[in-house]
Design a protein that fits this description.
Layout lengths: L3 H32 L5 E2 H8 L3 H13 L4 E2 L3 E3 L2 H13 L4 H6 L3 H14 L3 E10 L2 E11 L2 E7 L8 H21 L14 E10 L7 E2 L2 E5 L3 H7 L10 E4 L5
Parallel strand pairs: 6-7, 7-9
Antiparallel strand pairs: 1-3, 2-3, 4-5, 5-6, 7-10, 8-9
């Protein structure tokens, strides 16, 4: 039987080595985000940027490959947009600085993740939809249409825990955009499927990198990228509890 002193030493050693491993993995994940923005990254460059021994680097890369997060080749690593976002969330979960992670991600990657999730659930998708209503210009990052729903997504890369007052402003602005889009249709400058339905329900939503304190704020969904797929697939079951704007189209748009 281990003595109390030996037992405590073993626990401290495990905690120390666990923290060290976590730090090493964070370095690798940040390195991947830095080097794969546009093209695959050479393993040699990943090792150098992360300042890791090659054997440690390869071991961690194989682990990520087994988790289906990277495409590992002989001398390089490739990531698609969806996996870059998953890598970012994993790094944040392991303690990496949120601001650093956010700066390494592009707006287009958030928008692409939303578009992929919507398309996989049968929605037609429009990105960066610009329109004018009541002498004001608006833009919705991603719009997904599947009868009878029109989901209007605002993609946010906030870099720290967000205050309730700031979140309220974000939600109010997205609610206003969504309502303005509904009121502006049909619009001769672009065509949305919903103008052919007769009746449509427009739903504002906010997409973030990490899960926050609120899943709904003033009945508007606030969804992290990793929860997005489940949110879209389950949306019909709690549609009555979220904010929607109904619009009836009396003629074809």
């Amino acid at each position: 039987m281990l003595s109390y002193t030996t037992h405590v030493f073993c626990l401290n050693f495990i905690n120390f080595t666990g923290a060290k491993t976590m730090s090493v993995e964070c370095k690798l994940l940040i390195s991947l985000l830095k080097l794969t923005k546009e093209n695959p990254a050479l393993i040699e460059d990943i090792k150098t940027t992360a300042r890791l021994p090659i054997d440690v680097c390869l071991e961690l890369l194989k682990k990520l490959q087994n988790e289906n997060l990277i495409y590992l080749k002989t001398d390089s690593v490739a990531l698609d947009s969806a996996n870059r976002l998953k890598i970012a969330v994993k790094a944040a979960t392991l303690g990496a600085d949120i601001q650093t992670i956010s700066n390494l991600l592009g707006w287009q990657e958030f928008e692409e993740m939303a578009a992929i999730a919507l398309k996989s659930n049968g929605y037609t998708v429009h990105k960066n939809l610009r329109f004018k209503h009541s002498d004001r210009r608006y833009e919705v990052d991603v719009v997904g249409c599947r009868k009878p729903l029109v989901i209007c997504v605002d993609c946010k890369r906030w870099q720290h825990a967000i205050a309730a007052s700031a979140l309220r402003k974000i939600v109010e602005e997205q609610t206003e955009r969504t309502n303005a889009l509904a009121d502006s249709l049909p619009n001769p400058k672009f065509k949305l499927d919903c103008t052919q339905w007769g009746n449509a329900r427009f739903l504002p939503a906010v997409l973030s990198l990490m899960p926050g304190a609120y899943k709904f704020y003033y009945e508007v969904p606030v969804v992290s990228v990793l929860q997005l797929q489940d949110f879209i697939s389950q949306l019909p079951f709690y549609l009555d509890s979220v904010k929607c704007f109904s619009k009836r189209f009396n003629k074809l748009g």
